[in-house]
Every structure is written in structure tokens, then in C-alpha cells.
## 1
Amino acid sequence: YFGLPPEFLLPPDQQVAAWQVHALVSDAERSQEAALHAAMEEVSLAFVLSAFRKAGLQLLPGALWRSEHFAGKLSLLPAYRRLLERLLEMLVEAAILQPVSAGWQVLRTPETTEPAELLAALQVEHGKRPELRLLGRCAARLHDVLRGAQEPLELLFPGGDATEATQLYSDTPTARVLNGLLQRAVSSACAQLPAERGLRILEIGAGTGGTTAGLLPLLPADRSEYFFTDIGPTFLNKAQERFSAFPFVHYQPLNIEEAPAAQDLAHLQADLIVAANVLHATRNLEETLAHVRQLLQPGGQLLLLEATERRRWVDLTFGLTDGWWRYADSRQGHPLLTPQEWRTLLQAHGFVQV
């Protein structure tokens, strides 16, 4: 019933051809989202410059700075060295700094703008979107986070409340499109499922359940097993309450950085594995994908959702956590991979791609 080769799954290219991706979002909504995210990049830059001003940093044209000088002025914790390099890269993107052999040369003195005012204008235009609320709360305390005076997780989840993070991963137009793709893939698998077969799905790093919520109603309750996994008990306990109406869901701790056999999980052997914006947060992607492969049935499919663009507002929110920068593999300067880098890595581990 469960554990048999998932021969019923259509090849990925045949699935995608039937998804009608264009129907997930209108042209007007796509344009509005692009304008919002472009504006958020400018607001994010203003927050970085504000943090530098709070630290007493004066950027005068022609001045030469070393990274160590920036770190000293900011009273930077060693854990945030990679984040500092990313902040300086943002100033390079804005033609405020340029990298030189001796460090960073100031090209121009940036204008003094109040990021809170820019953010308020965006909220008037676009409403109090969860990403705007997160950015405002996190980036306003950037200087405090860098020097260890503010715990970043309290900014992301104030008082342990994950409401905004949940909305970000489920309610925004971007989330609806990406989750819609996953839902189409799961619906396709259900449509092909033989009457005598069961479907076993494992979700890695399910977190707040923003992705899960759209998948569970699609599954045949009498022929499904869904393993909701995360690294710690907090998300598992909350998910158990949230998804109590789905008795076929199992809640299982899983650290994908460790071998499944060492966690007594090698037996799971899923037909589908869902990993939405989680694998990049592991130290070594080569090891991580090897562990994913060990949890997947031969012939099973990995539904991988990953951001592939560096966005300032993301680095000033989720990038404030240690985990965002903890990679220890071949990645350079940022945890996110480009589409081509993902294709190369997945191909090396035997995953067939679309």
C-alpha cells in the first residue's frame, strides 16, 4: 500500500505542461509586486545607511575603509561578519562604495533619508503587508542586532508569535503563486494515484505550515500519509494543533543536515518530498541533498522551492539570524544559489529536473 515504487507519478515535464502557471497571477498583480519589491530594496538601503549613521560612520568621498574598520565602528559581533560584507555589497550596488584592493573606497556621500518615512509611504500605497511590517520592525533595529543588543528572533517572532511569518509564506501574491505550483504538483500526483495505492509525502522544515495548509486538503484522507517535519518541537506542537482535522498527518523531528539513519528515519521513503525555502539554510548542500535522496523512494520526486535572487529586505529580516549565514560549503558571499547553480547541484545528485 505504502512503500511501493511510485510508478504512477508523471514525468516532471509532463506535469508542468498541464499546470497553466499563467493562471496563478494576473499581469496587473505581477506588475504591482515588482514595483513593491523594487521600492523595498530602496527602503532597505535607507535602513542600512541609518544603522551606519547610528554607529557614527561618516562616508566621505575618497575615504578608504577596510572591513575591519566598519566592524569596529559597528561593534560587530563575529557571527555577523558575513552579513556586514552583504551590507557593504548593498552600498556597492548603490554606487556609494567601490571595492578596491585595500578595502572599500567611498564614491559619494549618500543622501540622508528617513527609512521610517519611506516605509510609511509604501504602507499607504500597498497596505500593511507582512513583509513591510517585518522589514520595519527588523531593519529599524539593525545596529542593535549587529552589536548584540537585540535578539533577532524576537524581532521576527515577537513574543513567539509567528503570525506575520505565516502570512508571508501563505497570503502574499508571491506566496500564492509559489504555493500554487506545489499544489498543482501534488494534485497531479493524487490524480494519477491508483485505487490500491497510498501516497506518502514528507515535508522538510515545514515551519509555520504556510505551505502545508494548501496541500493537506488536496490529499485523499484514506490513502495518504503526510510527515510534517521540522528541526525542533515548537513548530511541530503548533502544527499539531493547527492541522488536527487531518488525522493522516504525522509530526516528526528531522534535522536534514544529519543522516536519516542516525535519526531512525531511513524507513520513511517518501513518494514526494516537499522542501520550501529551507535547504539553503543548511551548512553543506552536498550533504543535505544526499540526505534528501535517502528519504526519497526510487522514482520519487522532490518538490523544491527556493529563492534565487538576493534581496536586501530578506537579508535585513531573515538574514539577521545566524542560520542564514552558517553555510560551510562552496557558496560565496550569500546562502542563495542561482537557478543554474541549483540545476548543476541537483543533477550531480541524480535529480531529474524540469
Note: The longest strand covers residues 296-305.
## 2
Amino acid sequence: MLCVINIGHSRKDPGCSNKNYNVTEFEFCNELALDIEDSLVKSNIDYLLVYQDTYSGLPTRINGYNPSLVISLHANAFDTKARGCETLYHLESGESLILADILQKNLNGALHNPNRGVKAKTSDDRGGKLLRDVKAPIVICEPFFLDNDYDYENALDHYDELVESYVRAIKEYSSR
């Protein structure tokens, strides 16, 4: 089993940010990916970290690795007031829905954020192309709102649990 961890966004396209803490989505997700990597090594899980060079070419690149599952790391943003955890999957992928349910349960258990739920996306929705075009079960994880200071501080306070929640979810999904 090969698990691809996709780091959302890039240095050129850093995603959302928290102005008060001067941190971008890419910076947070990159650090998170490296810490997840450390835990995956200790758990003897085959993995690959995949950075986004271009969004349009990302599905083809990921498919070239023939992964068993793909987790795309992100953080949400809206109006500095919205809070909570959500996990996105493609509407037509039953396996991705199973993966999303497992991740949502584990992420929420780690952060105890408001549960915004598992959300089905179509190909036309933001992130929908990635969710549709990757052949393996794939989810986009948005465990908290980066632009909300409380959500971000909570993620930092429970950071180790957040890292381990991803690893637990990968193990749970792969052992079904």
C-alpha cells in the first residue's frame, strides 16, 4: 500500500494565511507533512510526499505513482470567524467517501473543532478536478480555519494529536 500525501499549494501559490501569526497554508501544511512523514516511517507505512508544481498537472503526476490512497493537506479560510473541520471527496467515489469519513472522525477527535462534516464535491467545485481525476481514493482535508486565530491556536495546541490523527486514519483505512 502506498499513501500519497499531497501538500496543498506551493511557495508560489501559498493559499490562505493568518495575518496575525504570519503563516500561510503552504507553510503550515508543509511542516505538517514532514511530521506526518516521521510518524509514517515509524509505522512502516509506504508513503510519498508530493508537492504541487502546477495544479493542472497534479492528478497525472499522482496517478503515475499508482497510490492506494491520497490525502491532500489544506487549511480552510473564510471570514476570520468561521471554525471547524471538514473533509472533501468526489461525489462519485464511494472509496473516497469511506476515506473521508475515517479522516473526519480522526481529525475531529484530535482537534475537537466544530464538525463541518464530510462534503461531496463535483468536478466543477473548487478542488473538484483533483478529486475527480486522481484514480485512487482521495480526499482534501481542511481540519481548521487558518484565518481564525482560535482555530489556528487550537491546531497548534493539539498539533501532535493532529499529526497522529492522519496516521491513525491511514492505518484504519488500509486495514479494512
Note: The chain has a mean pLDDT of 96.
## 3
Amino acid sequence: MKATEANLLQFLKKSPQFVIPIYQRTYSWTDSECRQLWDDILLAGSSDDVSAHFVGSVVYIEKGLYQVSSQSPMLVIDGQQRLTTVTLLLEALARLLGDTEPVDGYSAKKIRSYYLLNPLEDGDREYKLLLTQTDKDSLIAIVQQKELPPNHSLRIAQNFEFFEERISQLGPDLAVLCKGLNKLVIVDVALNRDQDNPQLIFESMNST
């Protein structure tokens, strides 16, 4: 196991793909958690005294010990809720920005190319984050800007609408949101497949 501090957006940018294992629960964050994250991001973005905002850990497993070192998908042991919520927020922001770029790196094209998609890949490999069960098709539809499937995830749909509404309420000045997103920090925890059992670690983390 190797743990390091990482900027969340740079972590997403470097990562080829995160996959949620089938044994994990589905996406479950409610309006309350989304509102707390939103408030924290705006607070960080509006204050020069806040250099970073810690949002938790992302624990994943890959073939080697070194983080984000291969192009193979990484299984997420802990961090699904944060990764999914930030993905929804970024897509909502991309839709509102269009071709405008209030802060360097924040246009619709750049957000999707850096943090949501692998533009040169096809099929499932195109997406930075693959969820499980009904969550998977729901998130893909949102990132593709398509209509949600009939049997879609209510949490995914409701939380995406939450961020769309909040972003539209900010008006034309979205710099504070972009600056806040730039300050999100995680603990990047890479497990070693030769030494760590991902399902046992997942069960242990969720029982303590």
C-alpha cells in the first residue's frame, strides 16, 4: 500500500479509468452531502487564505505499486461517492460553460477531455469512471449529454440536477467555482495486487 497527497483534478487527469467493483453498493449520496461539498468548494474558491480543501481518500488497486502508472482500469475500493459526485458537478459545469473559459483549463471541451472522458478510446474505455448496475448507464448518459434511460438511477439524476441549478444560480461569474475545484485534495492510496486483497479491504473499511 502506498499513500500520497494529490490534487483531485490532476489525479483524474492522469488516471486512465476507475471502475466500481460489482460488490460495492450503488451511488448513494443525497442532497445533504452534495450541498456540503458545494459549500466547501465555494468557500475554498472565494478565500485566498484557503490553499486546499481535503475531501477524503481514494483507495484503488492496480497491478503494480506505483500510482497511476499503467493504462489498465483501476478498481475503486473507497471513494466512489466523491468521484461520482465530482464527475456530476464537472459535467454540469461543462454544459453551462460551453466555449467560454473563465479560468484557464475550464471550458467544456477541456473539462470533458481532461476529467470525464478518454477521447481517443472507444466503448467502455472512453469513460474515466464506470459505475455498476443502473448507475453505469445513468452516468454514461449524462456524460454523453443524452436522455437518461427509463430505469435510471434517481440519485444520479437528482444530484446532477442539484449541481445544474446551483451553477446556474452563480450567474456569469464562475471563477470562484473553478478556483474551488482546483483546490480539492485527496489522499491517493494505491494497493498492491500481489499483497492486498481488495474485497477484504473494502469489507474491513465498511465495517469499522
Note: The first helix runs from residue 8 to 14.
